[in-house]
Amino acid sequence: MSEQSTMTGPPVGPSGASSGGAGLSPRQRRNISRGVQYAVFVVLAALVVSWADWAAIREHFLDMKVAENLFPEIFTIALKNTVIYTVSGYVLGFFLGLVVALMRLSSAAPNRWIALVYIEVFRGLPAVLVFILLGLAVPTAFPGIRFPFDEYGVVAIALGLVSAAYMAETIRAGLQAVPRGQMEAARSLGMSYSRAMITVVIPQALRIVIPPLTNELILLFKDSSLVFAIGVTSATSELTKFGQDIATEYADSTPLLLAGATYLLITIPLSIVVRRLEARQAKAR
């Protein structure tokens, strides 16, 4: 009797699927799934294009005669004010958030309680309500209080108070991510706790949380549109208020579309920076 064994059925390939074509390899299934997704996307895009009223879109959203009235003020006034509001609020929020984060990690219980209350209050309140309270309620309740730089000061403080609550938790997470050995090594070299925290721990923590802090800058850039709540003038209006005023004047939505596109000129590059920072950190790890 021959020792060669007999096999029944079609031969099996290295992937485990039958070479007779009855089964599909994982790569083939992925390709089919991807092709179906592309086909669905193309069909949906074609439906949107075919259903859209392009004449109405050109009339109400792409009116070049109305768009001409936005320049150059959309850059020299609206965008400039938006950047000023965002940067000033972010700087204030960053330093206040750093202080609150350190208070959250303090060994003194009152410091932790104050920081926790601050974070919960300003994360829980809508940002527009903070604007209204600072711009309208505080001057009414305390007539002697005047904010520096008028509307610019109010917006910077309002954005700073709100963003600090979020950045405090981000920075706290970064501080806790720094290995304890860093602080112990610094103290063993004779550094005080404060000096070790400032020169050793905080710089490492900030490098860790750069991507989320940059995301906060993007969110703050958009939150600057809430300046309408305190009633700014035409000279201190930001992009959304500027576009809304022109849109109301001409009964056309083209200014709002251009204001949105101007936001994207800032937010898209920032988003690209965030992704590259995240990728660099992931590669470093």
Automatic annotation (TrEMBL):
Annotated region described as Disordered, given as residue ranges: 1-26
Fetch the PROSITE patterns from UniProt: ABC_TM1
- Please classify the protein's predominant subcellular localization into one broad category: membrane
The record describes its membrane topology as:
Multi-pass membrane protein
Keyword Transmembrane on entry: yes
Which residues belong to any copy of the ABC transmembrane type-1 domain? 79-274
Q: Which UniProt keywords apply?
A: Amino-acid transport, Cell membrane, Membrane, Transmembrane, Transmembrane helix, Transport
Gene Ontology MF terms: transmembrane transporter activity
Q: What's the superkingdom here?
A: Bacteria
What would be one Gene Ontology cellular-component term for the protein? Answer: ATP-binding cassette (ABC) transporter complex
List the Pfam families hit by this protein, alphabetically.
BPD_transp_1
Q: Where in the cell is it found?
A: Cell membrane
Transmembrane stretches, start-end: 36-57, 77-103, 115-140, 152-171, 192-210, 256-277
What is any one GO biological process for this UniProt entry?
A: amino acid transport
Give a yes or no for keyword Nucleotide-binding in this entry.
no
What PANTHER family would the database entry show?
GLUTAMINE TRANSPORT SYSTEM PERMEASE PROTEIN GLNP, MEMBRANE COMPONENT OF AMINO ACID ABC TRANSPORTER
Protein name according to UniProt = ABC transporter permease
**Organism source for this protein?**
Planomonospora sphaerica
Lineage start: Bacteria, Bacillati, Actinomycetota, Actinomycetes, Streptosporangiales
